[in-house]
Amino acid sequence: MKHWWKFLGIGLLVIASIAALRIPLAPALVHVSPDRIAPGPVDVTVTGYNTTFGNEVKVRLVNDGQSVCASSVAVLDASHLTARFDIPSGLRANLTDVVVDGFTYPGALFTEGLGTGITSSTCPEPTGAARTFAFPNRSILYESIRNLHFHVPMWFTMIVLMGISVFQSIKVLGSNSLERDLAAEMAVRIGLVFCVLGLITGALWARATWGAFWTNDVKLNGAAVTGLIYVAYLVLRGSVQDAHKRARLAAIYNIFAFVLLVLFLFVVPRLNAIDSLHPGNGGNSGFNDLDLDNRLRVIFYPAVLGWVLLGCWMYDLRVRAARLANIMDR
Amino acid sequence: MRTPLSFLFLLITTMANAQNAAPSWLESTLYGNGKINVVVGVVAVIILGIGIWLWRMDRRISSLEKEKGA
Amino acid sequence: MKPTEIAALLRLEVALDLRQRAAWAGMLLYVVSAVYVCYLAVKGGLGLATWNALFWIILLFAAFNALARSFQREDAGRQLYLYTLVDPRSVILARALYNGATMVVLSLLSLLVYALLLGTEVLEQADLPQFVLAVVLGGIGFAAVLTLISAIAARAGNGIGLMAILGFPLVLPLLLTVMRASKLALDGVAWSVTSTYFGGLVLLDVITVSLAWILFPYLWRD
Fold first, then answer.
1. I want to staple C143 with a disulfide (CB 3.0 to 4.6 A). Which of A93, A266, C99, C211 is the partner?
2. Could you say which residues of chain A have pLDDT below 50?
3. A28-111 is classed in which CATH architecture?
4. Touch of B by A (3+ CB pairs closer than 8 Å)
């Protein structure tokens, strides 16, 4: 069964895409109103995201480690509730956190009437709800964290295809084979398709997350340089007529460019320690410790493999079509 | 050319209106489900891109077939 | 590949350049007029970041201008004759060395002209040895990348246009690193901080030259 990898690729893509779109986000608190409290009775309305507020919900305020329990809680629906507090005077910190069951909205309430502290009350602990499998709920990203399974695999696929191209180019230098040269060119062409898709999807996501389609970021510069290099590669191919000479020149440029590109993408950012908006560079926390937790990883790696296999399939088709065209030209 | 453009416009305005009509907590928080539209857009772009590639591949193979027939 | 071969080739380069003094004059004129245009355009005080960026942009284009000649000034017949006599690896190494030296001289001259025309206030608080080192390493790096690119462009039979298209994305890693390093040098940052950048620059230069050394013989075969 020589087509097994195609089935594997499509299967992985189907499963990973459905999972990426359907798995719920972990519940979180997203809004608290009002935003300031003063000593005395106050009603605080809390808005949750993917939460299941029920009658047994436990609400409290935490100020510098000291708790104030809700005197009464009115649940409006699964994601809204209003809690009444009697705010004592003498809280220590400027900002008070709101805690609903296991979820915290840090620094939700600006606190007036500060003092030296209160006698902390022991609030009823929530009954530990069973945690379902869910994607992490990160502020600013929220639902768009699902894009991780669509945008990032584009770059993985592109790098794999460019790697295939370099492998073929090295073979070209050893054998002078035009067949290999064709394969190298087609790998670059398919890689560029994924480069364009990665750029557009990245721009959309960036606009929604960082507020601009393009930011001066290491990863974005890397993407731009990659695109430029491989467009230049195609220009070089276009400007040489003799097939064997073209094969050799293109192979040399491809190898030279790929090594410098790898340096640019993976070494220079570390060396320069430039701050990046992307995770894993500069001042940002890496994928490893926080952002790409196991819940994401379980879907992310199959998605990457699926997209890579799809890219390889596209590359395979393109090479075969080009080979046929060559045979017919003869 | 006119029809697809106006359709696109319609699509965009309905999306915008849908956001406007959303419950007020959505607007006041800027957080809620609006973010899912980004995912929808990204998936749409990828499907469109692969579709364009398939279209070009189709054309390429058609021209091969024509060449063979001639 | 023998040291004597490389030395002979270097002497050949020098002799050729002495015969074509107009080319050197052309390069210098290019730098001077580029700097003068900048001087006319900005008139007066430049911020440190802009001063640095403008300098490297001028140097980048000067490098393209200077190194485009590297493989294009000799016709195919003479190249063929040359390569039957010596190992192609000696040729690329000699040429990279010579281009590196050219770029160092050109960079330092550019720096002189640039500082004279666009003001030296920026240099007063700078760590001058560090800045000069950045300029030297950057010049060598440009030479290392562009020597092979110049050879490819010359073999493709397409002149300076192709060289700019092929070379520009490839010098970017170097350009970004060296701009960062020289900016730190201008800020007067201590060696302990900048040494990683200089290490990185040396690494980039070495990797680029060794790649050129490995790949050039294949370029030569016909």
1. C99
2. 281-290
3. Sandwich (2.60)
4. yes
